[in-house]
Amino acid sequence: MFRVYSNTRVIYGLCRALNNQISKRYQSSSSSSSTTTTAAANVALEPNVSKMSMFSGHIKGAITNNLEFIRPENITPISMYQVLDSDGSIKEKSHTPNFTDEDLIKMYKDMTLLNVLDRILYESQRQGRISFYMTNFGEEATHIGSAAALNAKDLVYGQYREAGVLMYRGFKLHEFIDQCFGNARSSCKGVQMPVHYGSTDLSFVTISSTLATQMPQAVALNEMRPVLIEAMTLRVGHHSTSDDSSAYRSIDEVRSRDKRDNPSLRVRKYMYNRGCWNEEKDEQWTKDSQKMVMEAFANCEKTKRAPISTMFENIYDKMEPHLQRQMKEMKEHVRQNHDHFPLSLYEQSST
Ligand SMILES: Cc1ncc(C[n+]2csc(CCOP(=O)(O)OP(=O)(O)O)c2C)c(N)n1
């Protein structure tokens, strides 16, 4: 999970104190231009520190004449800041999140609704009903927690596995599922791969799978410096439906981590401890959420696919002659081979 926002002014909720820690780290390691000037001046004035680096970003680093390779096993890793432990208790009481029970219940419902949506869409891909899918299991808390900390209008450039941000902002179940079917009602009408959601209304820029493109696009300029928050999570599912992750990691290990440290479970335990949720409510919610997703799925599956001409339209303001030619050729091909195409699933083309 890797995301940079246009506005990282306030990150609290599940990520609140993590932000504080990182900000402190940034402050102490000097990133503003005024600090650079002061430190550089000190280096010039004090002969004792003449071996200190003058490179910005390395102001406090020493210069050495010993050639030494840095090995990960010999350095202390950066500590991971954690609010909730696996039992759903908050170790540092002064970091208790200051959101209401209602806020917390909404976050939990969004996380678990995403889990249900993932399960059903993943299975539907295995059954050949949609072409591709990527689950969010294990990363749901980072989606919902960070979305909760942003303002609703903050522009988000999501990574391909960040559907929870949209879920939190109110993207409808049918909007997710329509996009995966690429049906006529979906925003991109099948011209994007499944899970490449986008929403102008929800200030969520359509997902581009190209890794890391969202970072320079969305670098935060608040306080005139970017803020990076790296959330450590475990991707529990396979990378996508095109991947079998057992080829490169132990499935047993993933399962056992998921069992003892699943983010939705951890939040649920916290809610039980806090007294705002109980097993009865949880069972009811499990049933309700499954019903909601199944109903939306059935409706979306019935909705016809966009006409095949859609793939040539809306690319340029006017359809260029080469696209007109290609569309004509394709229509002719489909007409001649109509037995091989499930044409009844598609809306008729108006062009
Ligand atoms: C620039 C770029 N190069 C290669 C790819 C192909 N690609 C898609 S996902 C992926 C692996 C990403 O791994 P990681 O960041 O660990 O995420 P996860 O597998 O958990 O989704 C690669 C190489 C890409 N999308 N973009």
From TrEMBL:
Record flagged with keyword NADP: no
Enzyme class: oxidoreductase
Gene Ontology MF terms: branched-chain 2-oxo acid dehydrogenase activity
Chain ranges of the Dehydrogenase E1 component domain: 109-217, 220-307
Start-end of Basic and acidic residues biased regions: 250-259
Cofactor(s) annotated in UniProt: thiamine diphosphate
Reaction catalysed by this enzyme: N(6)-[(R)-lipoyl]-L-lysyl-[protein] + 3-methyl-2-oxobutanoate + H(+) = N(6)-[(R)-S(8)-2-methylpropanoyldihydrolipoyl]-L-lysyl-[protein] + CO2
Annotated region (Disordered), positions in chain: 239-259
GO terms for biological process, alphabetical: branched-chain amino acid catabolic process
UniProt keyword terms in alphabetical order: Oxidoreductase, Thiamine pyrophosphate, Transit peptide
Keyword Ribosomal protein in record: no
EC numbers for this chain: 1.2.4.4
Record's function text: The branched-chain alpha-keto dehydrogenase complex catalyzes the overall conversion of alpha-keto acids to acyl-CoA and CO(2). It contains multiple copies of three enzymatic components: branched-chain alpha-keto acid decarboxylase (E1), lipoamide acyltransferase (E2) and lipoamide dehydrogenase (E3).
Family: Belongs to the BCKDHA family.
Descriptive protein name: 2-oxoisovalerate dehydrogenase subunit alpha
Source organism of this protein record: Rotaria sordida
